[in-house]
Design brief:
Elements (H helix, E strand, L loop, with lengths): L2 E4 L8 E5 L2 E5 L8 H9 L3 E6 L5 H12 L3 E8 L2 H8 L3 H17 L13 H7 L13 E3 L7 H9 L7 H4 L16 H27 L3 E6 L12 E2 L2 E4 L1 E3 L5 H9 L7 E3 L8 E3 L18 E3 L9 H9 L6 E4 L10 H4 L4 E4 L15 E6 L2 E4 L10
Parallel strand pairs: 3-4, 4-5, 5-7, 12-13, 13-14, 14-15
Antiparallel strand pairs: 1-2, 1-16, 2-3, 6-10, 7-9, 8-11, 11-12, 16-17
Amino acid sequence: MARFIAIPVGQGDAFYLEREGFSVLVDGGRGRTSFPFMFKSVTGVNSVNVVVCTHNDQDHADGILGFLESALQCDEVWLPGRWLDVLPDILKPLNEVFVELVENISDMEKHQNEALRKPDTTSIEVYSEQIDGFTVETGSLNYGTMLGEDWWPESCIEMLEQSESWELSSHWLNPIYFMHPHFYAMFSSAAHGQLLWSAIDAASRIRAIAIAAFNRGVPVRWFEFNPTAPSGGKAELRPVNASEIKMVNARGGMLLNFLALTVANKESLVFFSPPGNNHPGVMFTADSDLANLTIPSNLDYAITTAPHHGSEANANAYLAVQSAKCSSITWIRSDGRYRQRPGASYLHLKSRRLCTLCRCKAGSQAPKQVVHLYSRSGRWVRHRSSQLCSCK
């Protein structure tokens, strides 16, 4: 019997799938310290075959870091290939990364970069949307280096062996510090101080996960965003918009731009676990809008996770799935308490829907729930404790 569980993390996504001879955790929500205990208590297991991090959003990645730092076990870790573009730089001491990012922002101000001129560009996430379509500048550095037998770039091994997580003192952890007047001497806008803080936060997350995965000593597979020619993975879990890579190209552009791509929702990795002997498939959509990719043809009666927690910004994803003419999809949505989510497109779906937390009428509250489905007679059946969506 296969089973699927949406773990009720405080914020974000965390999904567990167990099928014949294989188990996977896809993302871990935002709770770095709380997630390992929650994972074990909800799933009843202390090990998985594969741990996947779909992208560098805090509400997807922090729990994965907590898992890797805990006593929980895994056989493999799957990470975004985009992280390899920045890893050699962010394994350096914090002060060196700080200086490089300051120079990046200052240089863009000097050249009146359009993305930085917008007043709401206060975070790496917003900046990633502003540079949508940004072309990677490889130039004369367009050559590749094979990953070693230990699954890491040779140039990073010594740094990974010697590196420890950045010790971020209180001012590094506080974005308000980066609005302090002494930053005005560096930047033309206080908002760019906040952007700097957000970039450092994004870098520290990748750095910590990489170090934790390296210290595990388990195979690490890297998947590069590639919606037109996906490849790699396992028979039980295949990329839908990414290709597994064995080689990494040298980065020839600004660190800030490549960090922005690690948090970009459009580059969230999407995976599909195809149907098995007695159960339909499962598609993990992360924060993707499913644009420009081929939807798996065998989605009949499958589970599909609601992209970006049901945000209306990802409405295209529902149209993409509907265009595949699949029978009886079950949508699973994981989220915290937000007024704007889910959007109308999610609410208007004719298919069965379940949420870890439904949006209720003003003044009322709904408790978080474990969403648990199991296979029976070739279909996904919800556990009697898992309630259908009641979002208002």
